[in-house]
């Protein structure tokens, strides 16, 4: 499967997922909660994404439905990057 995201994103996700085996495949549809991302982890991940990509995520962008899977997080980040480019 081709990677949907860049290496920076992959690294940030891996750093936030204690349940993902080193070298394990990070699937776009994987449930982040099943990979060990809890509410404190979400806060840390949001901060890391904002810092790494120089964007601000809106409060309604990191609800339980937009941060369920890596694919959803990548989509949300893409929306924030598009807003920042305007």
Your description of this structure?
The chain is an all-alpha fold and 86 residues long. Helices cover 48% and strands 0% of the residues. It has three helices and no strands. Helix 1 (7-16) runs antiparallel to helix 2. The model has no long low-confidence stretch (mean pLDDT 90).
CATH architecture: Orthogonal Bundle
| Helix-residue proportion | 40-55%
Major sheet: none
**CATH class group:** Mainly Alpha
If you consult CATH, what is the topology?
Answer: Non-ribosomal Peptide Synthetase Peptidyl Carrier Protein, Chain A
What is the H/E order?
HHH
Question: What's the mean pLDDT score?
Answer: 90
Task: Report the sheet-strand fraction.
Answer: under 5%
Annotation field: number of helices: 3
Spans where pLDDT lies below 50 across 5 or more residues:
none
- What's the CATH superfamily, by name? ACP-like
| Count of structural domains | 1
Secondary-structure content class: mainly alpha
Could you tell me the radius of gyration in angstroms? 12 Å
Inertia-based shape: globular
Tell me the total number of β-strands: 0
Q: Note the gap between the termini.
A: 32 Å
State the gist of this model.
The chain is 48% helix and 0% strand.
Topology:
Blueprint: H1 7-16, H2 39-53, H3 70-85
Could you list some keywords that capture this structure?
86 residues; mainly alpha; Non-ribosomal Peptide Synthetase Peptidyl Carrier Protein, Chain A
């Amino acid at each position: 499967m081709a990677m949907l995201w860049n290496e920076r994103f992959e690294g940030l996700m891996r750093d936030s997922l204690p349940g993902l085996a080193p070298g394990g495949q990070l699937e776009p549809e994987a449930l982040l909660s099943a990979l060990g991302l809890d509410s404190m982890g979400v806060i840390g991940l949001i901060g890391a994404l904002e810092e790494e990509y120089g964007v601000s995520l809106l409060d309604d962008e990191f609800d339980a439905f937009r941060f369920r899977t890596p694919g959803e997080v990548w989509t949300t980040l893409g929306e924030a990057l598009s807003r920042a480019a305007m």
